[in-house]
Design brief:
The protein is an alpha+beta fold and 231 residues long. 23% of the residues lie in helices and 31% in strands.
Length: 231
């Protein structure tokens, strides 16, 4: 929330050009989300070090009393990414962060096609699952050279109702906002197995982007994790 707490030398750029602003910051293409940016981390440290101004209470009172901004109806904030040849999206709110590719540790004596293993994210071991397997995209599209794939690949760190997991993807474009109603039909190129997971389709850069149903997706992930860890 943007609030009247600015201090001399302090720039809350995330409220203007970041994920809470107009998303025009050029660093978003690299960091995807403001919380991954070192500028955001430095600002948080700076905020913890400053004292409250004398007029703090009055300023916040005026801020809360202001008329609330009306958000345009049918506005959707999503993160667009690619798995194989398909462009997909999930609501921004389910993302914890976008991490660089790293080693996936297998789970001993556990076999499940969807569960790839465990990934270390900031010291926490999270289950790593395959969207390719869930959506039936294993044979879709042409694979590029391994070196190029390693450069583009990222890990989506997802958090839905307290359930955290990691999904490798081939490429992350970043945050997009869509206005107006979205189409209902899934792209014709999408694998048949993926169709139930697509709740609507976004038109983006002459491409059809399948917006995944996060509730159904996490239901499948949790069921697969339970199967992989069953004794």
């Amino acid at each position: 929330m943007s609030a009247p707490t600015e201090q001399p030398g302090f720039d809350d750029c995330w409220n203007r050009i970041g994920v809470r602003g107009d998303a025009s910051c050029p660093e978003l293409k690299k960091h995807v989300h403001c919380r991954n940016c070192p500028v955001y981390s430095a600002a948080a440290t700076q905020l913890l070090d400053i004292g409250l101004p004398p007029d703090y209470l009055d300023r916040w009172t005026r801020h809360v009393a202001q008329d609330k901004q009306v958000i345009e109806a049918h506005t959707h904030s999503v993160i667009v990414f690619r798995v194989e040849a398909e462009w997909l999206a999930l609501p921004t709110v389910v993302f914890s962060e976008i991490a660089s590719l790293r080693r996936i540790h297998s789970i001993p004596h556990r076999r499940n096609g969807i569960v790839l293993g465990l990934a270390n994210i900031r010291g926490e071991l999270l289950a790593c699952v395959s969207l390719e397997q869930i959506l039936g995209l294993e044979q879709q599209g042409e694979r590029r050279q391994e070196r190029q794939r390693v450069i583009d690949e990222r890990l989506l760190v997802l958090d839905y109702e307290g359930h955290r997991s990691v999904c490798p993807v081939d490429e992350v474009y970043g945050i997009q906002r869509f206005h107006g109603r979205m189409l209902a039909a899934a792209p014709a190129t999408l694998a048949k197995a993926a169709t139930p997971y697509i709740k609507s389709v976004l038109s983006w850069q002459d491409k059809s982007v399948g917006l995944l149903d996060e509730q159904l997706l996490f239901h499948t992930i949790n069921r697969s994790l339970a199967s992989a860890t069953a004794t």
